[in-house]
């Protein structure tokens, strides 16, 4: 579960990026976060990750409470959240297996468990044969599948996606959306995007953000510009 209560953010030297935001995402739901460039989408995701503290208000993520005082549990919080970025952020010098496993090593899972979960995750994203290849040997769509595999291993409950199809062609975009669709039963997913075709095809709840405020919350989905 993720919940924002009266959350505002003012960046140092910057304008107010979020004004008094309120919303709740129930566990095991998929929601879109849409809005123009600069609206505050990434700021919301950074708050959920504990990378950024609210200037006022409270962000609740699973059992964690993030307010404007120093937050000490960032490392533990990160263990329940997987993140998928537009530019993949896959480490070039590590092979695919190691890229997916990296958070599990940090969390202290034993080797056999890591092996099993990484292999399963590669099957979920449709790349069972690629574990020992290096990122330079994969296409962009395949790299995004690796990023999704990395986001789901290690019992993560929440997946944050920040414009994850922004660098992909339409066909690959739909393949990636199919993977998200298969994950939505098990995870809480917040998916930031500008792509209205996606939002209008796979209809789910839509939070619309504009100038740092939630201007619409469409439970039945769909979004017109
Ligand atoms: N580190 C920062 N310091 C100061 N201002 C910032 C910082 N990061 C973001 N901002 C400002 O906060 C506002 C919201 O930015 P944010 O990155 O959340 O937008 P976004 O909706 O993710 O945009 P995009 O679709 O382009 O990714 C913008 O006005 C931006 O300039
Ligand atoms: Mg952004």
Question: What does this entry look like structurally?
Answer:
This protein has 225 residues and is α/β, with parallel strands linked by helices. The chain has one domain: P-loop containing nucleotide triphosphate hydrolases (Rossmann fold, 3-Layer(aba) Sandwich), CATH 3.40.50.300. It contains seven helices and ten strands. It has helices at 41-48, 74-78, 96-107, 111-124, 140-152, 170-183, 196-201, and strands at 2-10, 16-25, 30-34, 56-61, 64-66, 81-85, 158-162, 188-193, 205-210, 213-218. It has a six-stranded mixed β-sheet. The protein has a four-stranded antiparallel β-sheet with strand order 2-1-4-5, with helices on one face. Strand 7 (158-162), helix 6 (170-183) and strand 8 (188-193) form a beta-alpha-beta unit. Helix 3 crosses helix 4 (111-124) and helix 4 (111-124) crosses helix 5 (140-152). The longest helix is centred in the middle third of the chain and has 14 residues, at 111-124. The radius of gyration is 17 Å and the shape is globular. The site of magnesium ion has 3 residues, from helix 1.
């Amino acid at each position: 579960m993720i919940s924002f209560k009266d959350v505002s953010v003012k960046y140092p030297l910057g304008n107010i990026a979020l004004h008094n935001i309120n919303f709740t995402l129930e566990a095991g739901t998929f929601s879109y976060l849409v809005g123009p460039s600069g609206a505050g989408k990434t700021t919301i995701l950074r708050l959920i990750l504990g990378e950024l503290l609210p200037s006022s208000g409270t962000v609740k993520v699973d059992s964690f409470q993030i307010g404007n005082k120093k937050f000490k549990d960032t490392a533990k919080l990160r263990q329940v959240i997987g993140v998928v970025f537009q530019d993949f952020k896959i480490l070039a010098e590590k092979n695919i297996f190691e890229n997916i496993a990296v958070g599990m090593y940090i969390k202290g899972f034993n080797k056999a468990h890591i092996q099993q979960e990484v292999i399963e995750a590669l099957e979920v994203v449709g790349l069972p044969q690629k574990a020992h290849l290096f990122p330079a040997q994969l296409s962009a769509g395949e790299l995004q599948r690796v990023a999704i595999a990395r986001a789901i291993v290690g019992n993560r409950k929440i997946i944050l996606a920040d414009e994850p199809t922004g660098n992909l062609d339409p066909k690959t975009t739909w393949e990636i959306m199919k993977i998200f669709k298969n994950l939505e039963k098990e995870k809480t997913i917040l998916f930031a995007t500008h792509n209205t075709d996606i939002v209008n095809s796979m209809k789910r709840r839509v939070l619309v953000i504009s100038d740092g405020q939630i201007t619409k919350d469409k439970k039945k989905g769909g979004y017109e510009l």
